């Protein structure tokens, strides 16, 4: 069963509106309304969220948006999100939308989005990946009415309108006037009794007392006026010349209100153009302009994962190197004095404009711009037991003073299902040598993770050397970042060799459909079906063909083979061996598999999913995943020199509960040969022994988290015991 999709009608449309045809007073205006920057354009596509006491509105939804909302749910409240507005149809504007839909499906059964009629085809393209959201009804409000203003939303806080040109849509948010305070003294003078009469007057209704008609204005103070905010995208020069310069700066569409802020989601090349700058000057001098584009210089926003990396870096700065995110301390940076500026740009994520109660700019969370590394380290080292364990680890480790040797592995995403605060979805970069790399799976925001690790100036070099992407299966958390990776790699150079994408037929068909119906990406990749490289479990032989030999030659590998594994339709694991004799095995998402065991035998590094703790083995079996012990047992059984555990449930975001395993057969193997993967962990065969030893200082670092998990397991076991006794 697939997701339900239907078109919804907008409220009304008018070619031009010049008078207050609609009552703009509201008795139920939210006490606090904020407009918060979700993506400033530096790493994440420009996007905003407007939050109120009752409901939230999201404008654009690029990759990483749902992770930002989850990270800052204290302020942003995913449960209050009901409408998404798209300013255009470019992939970057909506690349995070379907991941968000899958997450929202757990708490909502209806979701509305506003955008071009072209989204109907986009929905059709992604429908096959939204099976777990089958109970959600997606309502699509089409905004394609050129030169016509469309009323989309009319609630207690806003009248929201759209104005479209080609495939670009500008949104006008007109804040309702807050009805004036009830003047009790005047009510007493007019003999109005407290109770329903008061409520009626506050609701704007006329009442009668002793035969006298009393109007609301007779007993109400002056209303608190609302203003207008415009959110627009100008993707090309002709949009400015043919449209925006001709609509009188939106003044005919704002119900007589004053425009106080215009948000420009416009590329720097256009925003810096002299014609665009001249257009900005035609607005009233009191209007402020907020520019969101790639020239923004501050990356931080995903605070939890950055803070986690700072802590892990204290344990081992080779395995957990510092991230290359650009930060700024707003407390000392004069650039953040916004109130006196007319044009505001180069701002951090979570930059906020307070619409109510008072109009001002602020930073929602000071940590979003800067984290004090020294302070974080000092707080950890105050724990003497941890300090002793850390010193013990450091005396046992062998440090490689040179650069990370080849081959090495960088984990870009180690969580399952959906992005979490500390763990992104699947993505593992295997660097074979200086010039060639293989990417195992490509969850949403894989490119963003690369930028966070390597920095804006260096991630392109890494992207350039990725020759192969292997996608294990069609579940969203394993490939929703693939199109972005193809597009970013195409930007590097016309001389770039195409990617080899090894994937199930369903993924290759999806990429071809995207190429033919939406955007040309076919010159950026060469598709190979997993079946072409598959292991024959009957003959116990590896598939040998001309296409495979060509691939092996181009990426300097001795062997590569895929194998069907038990998870969902067309799920594959993979093994590959380098010319220097190092053998890797990657399970993808999988239950136990004899075939995978056979081809993975004696591998140097097994990377195996370990989605759930052992006490959830029934759930793991139902969802066709492996538990932590099952994954470790595969490594022991096939004589893997090291087993690296990944793809953890977001229940175990900080630390996998490996210490809860009580199995003597596995104990020795766990101690010396099992590694727990984290996002941004980089390992080579020279430091794998160190990575295995890290389990012990990690247990102390996350002692509270481990205690919490132990309590959860105990409660769950006690509940099962009671139920068992009840039915025995």
Automatic annotation (TrEMBL):
Q: What class of enzyme is it?
A: hydrolase
Its recorded reaction(s) are: Endonucleolytic cleavage of RNA, removing extra 3' nucleotides from tRNA precursor, generating 3' termini of tRNAs. A 3'-hydroxy group is left at the tRNA terminus and a 5'-phosphoryl group is left at the trailer molecule
GO MF annotation: an example = metal ion binding
Q: Which GO terms describe its cellular component?
A: mitochondrion
User: Does this UniProt record's set of keywords contain Glycosyltransferase?
Assistant: no
Any single biological process term in GO: mitochondrial tRNA 3'-end processing
Q: Does the keyword Transcription regulation apply?
A: no
The residue ranges of the tRNase Z endonuclease domain are: 45-95
Q: Which InterPro entries match?
A: RibonucZ/Hydroxyglut_hydro (IPR036866), RNZ2-like (IPR047151), tRNase_Z_dom (IPR027794)
- Which Gene3D superfamilies does this chain map to? Ribonuclease Z/Hydroxyacylglutathione hydrolase-like (3.60.15.10)
Please state the Enzyme Commission number of this protein.
Answer: 3.1.26.11
Record keywords, A-Z: Endonuclease, Hydrolase, Metal-binding, Nuclease, tRNA processing, Zinc
Task: Name the needed cofactors.
Answer: Zn(2+)
Matching PANTHER family: ZINC PHOSPHODIESTERASE ELAC PROTEIN 2 (PTHR12553)
Say which family it is in: Belongs to the RNase Z family.
According to UniProt, the name of this protein is ribonuclease Z
Q: Which gene encodes it?
A: LOC113793780
């Amino acid at each position: 069963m697939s997701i339900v999709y239907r078109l919804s009608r907008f409220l009304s449309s008018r070619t031009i509106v010049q008078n207050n045809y609609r009552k703009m007073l509201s008795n139920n205006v939210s006490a606090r309304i904020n407009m918060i920057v979700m993506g400033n354009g530096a790493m994440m596509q420009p996007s905003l969220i407007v939050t109120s006491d009752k409901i939230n509105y999201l404008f654009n939804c690029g990759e990483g948006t749902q992770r930002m909302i989850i990270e800052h749910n204290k302020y942003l409240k995913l449960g209050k999100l009901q409408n998404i507005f798209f300013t255009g149809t470019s992939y970057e504007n909506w690349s995070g939308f379907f991941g968000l839909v899958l997450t929202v499906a757990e708490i909502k059964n209806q979701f509305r989005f506003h955008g071009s009629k072209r989204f109907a085809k986009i929905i059709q393209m992604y429908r096959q990946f939204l099976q777990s959201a089958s109970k959600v009804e997606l309502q699509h409000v089409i905004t394609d009415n050129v030169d016509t203003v469309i009323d989309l939303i009319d609630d207690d806080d806003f009248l929201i309108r759209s104005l479209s040109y080609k495939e670009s849509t500008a949104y006008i948010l007109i804040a309702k006037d807050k009805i004036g305070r009830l003047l009790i003294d005047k009510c007493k003078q007019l003999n109005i009794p407290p109770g329903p009469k008061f409520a009626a007057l506050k609701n704007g209704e006329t009442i009668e007392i002793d035969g006298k008609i009393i109007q609301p204005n007779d007993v109400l103070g002056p209303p608190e006026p609302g203003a207008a905010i415009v959110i627009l995208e100008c993707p090309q020069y002709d949009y400015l010349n043919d449209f925006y310069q001709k609509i009188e700066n939106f003044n005919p569409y704002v119900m007589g209100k004053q425009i106080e802020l215009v948000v420009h989601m416009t590329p720097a090349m256009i925003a810096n153009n002299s014609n665009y700058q001249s257009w900005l000057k035609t607005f009233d001098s009191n209007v402020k302009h907020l520019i969101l584009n790639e020239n923004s210089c501050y990356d931080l926003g995903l605070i939890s994962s950055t803070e986690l990396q700072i802590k892990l870096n204290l344990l081992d700065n080779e395995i957990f190197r510092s991230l290359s995110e650009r930060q700024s301390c707003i407390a000392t940076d004069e650039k953040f004095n916004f109130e006196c500026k007319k044009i505001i740009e180069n701002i951090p994520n979570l930059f906020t404009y307070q619409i109510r109660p008072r109009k001002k700019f602020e930073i929602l969370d000071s940590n979003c711009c800067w984290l004090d590394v020294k302070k974080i380290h000092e707080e950890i080292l105050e724990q003497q037991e941890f300090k002793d364990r850390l010193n013990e680890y450091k005396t046992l480790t062998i440090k490689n003073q040179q650069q990370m040797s080849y081959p090495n592995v960088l984990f870009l995403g180690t969580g399952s299902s959906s992005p979490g605060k500390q763990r992104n979805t699947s993505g593992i970069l295997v660097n074979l040598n200086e010039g060639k790399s293989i990417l195992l799976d490509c969850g949403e925001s894989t490119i963003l993770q690369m930028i966070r690790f390597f920095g804006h100036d260096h991630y392109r070099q890494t992207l350039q050397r990725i020759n192969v992407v292997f996608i294990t299966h069609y579940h969203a958390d394993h490939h929703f970042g693939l199109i972005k990776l193809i597009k970013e790699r195409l930007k590097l150079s016309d001389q770039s060799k195409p990617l080899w994408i090894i994937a199930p037929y369903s993924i290759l068909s999806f990429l071809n459909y995207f190429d033919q119906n939406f955007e040309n990406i076919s010159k950026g990749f060469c598709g190979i079906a997993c079946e072409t490289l598959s292991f024959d479990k009957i003959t116990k032989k590896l598939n040998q063909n001309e296409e495979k030999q060509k691939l092996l030659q181009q990426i300097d590998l001795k062997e590569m083979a895929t194998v069907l594994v038990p998870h969902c339709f067309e799920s594959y694991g993979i093994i590959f061996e380098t010319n220097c004799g190092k053998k890797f095995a990657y399970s993808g998402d999988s239950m136990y598999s004899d075939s995978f065991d056979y081809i993975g035998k004696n591998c140097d590094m097994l990377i195996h999913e370990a989605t759930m703790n052992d006490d959830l083995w029934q759930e793991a079996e139902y969802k066709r995943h492996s538990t932590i012990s099952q994954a470790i047992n595969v490594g022991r059984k096939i004589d893997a020199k090291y087993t690296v555990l990944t793809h953890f449930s977001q229940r175990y975001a900080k630390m996998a509960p490996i210490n809860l395993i009580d199995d003597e057969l596995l104990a020795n193997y766990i101690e010396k040969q099992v590694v727990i993967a984290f996002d941004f962990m980089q390992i080579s065969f020279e430091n794998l022994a160190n990575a295995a030893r890290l389990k012990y200082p990690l247990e102390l670092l996350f002692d509270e988290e481990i205690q919490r998990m132990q309590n959860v397991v105990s409660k769950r076991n006690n509940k099962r015991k009671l139920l068992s006794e009840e039915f025995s």
